[in-house]
Known about the structure:
Layout lengths: L1 E5 L8 E5 L10 E10 L1 H7 L15 E9 L11 E7 L5 E9 L6 H5 L2 H14 L6 E5 L4 H13 L2 E6 L4 H7 L2 E4 L4 H6 L7 E4 L6 H4 L9 E3 L11 E2 L14 H8 L5 E6 L3 H10 L5 E5 L4
Parallel strand pairs: 7-8, 7-10, 8-9, 10-11, 11-12, 13-14
Antiparallel strand pairs: 1-2, 3-4, 3-6, 3-14, 4-5, 5-6
Helix pairs in contact: 3-4
Amino acid sequence: MLAVRYDEFGDSSVMRVAERDEPHAREERVRIRVRAAGVNPADVKKRNGQMGEATFPVTPGFDAAGVVDEVGEGVEHVAVGDEVLGWGFRTHAEFAVLKHVVQKPPAVGWTHAAALPVVTETAERCLRLLNVREGQTIVIEGAAGGVGAAAVQLARARGARVIGTASERNHDYLASLGAEPLSYGRGIAGRVRGLTNHVDAVFDTAGSGSVPELITLVDDPAQVVSIADFTAPELGARATGGGADGAWDILADLPMLIATHGYGARVDSVFPLVDAAAAFDRVETGRPQGKVVLDVSLS
């Protein structure tokens, strides 16, 4: 099969698309013929050597959508031929094995389906850590990005009030999701206090150095969670990096969230598999407005 791979850490110049052996479904996993795969900031960080050691060659990718063509022992909720989306490893390839997988809603296209798994789980995990619930107010820093926008929608579905920060070009988008938009940057705490005198929780997706200000908005610094600033615990806030044992059960709620709340992911751009290096560059330096996706059907 064709797959993206790199044999050393570095920038996009170390990436290439080449033949690799096909993976096969193991216990409680399925193999899919990949139709589309998401490109996440974590993919770029891993390629750059910022996520620890790796066994080379590496094929990146964590989320994907496609058609099941092998089912491992213990899998009963999907079958060969089903259209699915989910999470696994090495998804930037023609075939991938997924651990957490659900049926793809028929109304959702391949590229938008591939954009959903990682951002949805990350947002849900953090909202659970913060115990966000109906009637509360949450501030989301970096609310127009993939995870931030997912968190806005999931918090609104809970009945929470959401104040979201973003550049002004994204304010209309945040308002369309049900958030009250504010500009990010220095002085954010004062701007939030201009809208409310009480904040229950803060979710930082941006890692822009705003945590010292953000913790002044809540009674307990532990009610600030960051996925992008791992110095946050030094101030009493929390940081989470996720992984296999996260809030993956939220994927089962996607059909309800889509049908009832119009939940979805904004896709910034789509690249064919052979242009994976350009897709990584878009994530790393292009300030994408939404998720970058690889269209593997074009390989």
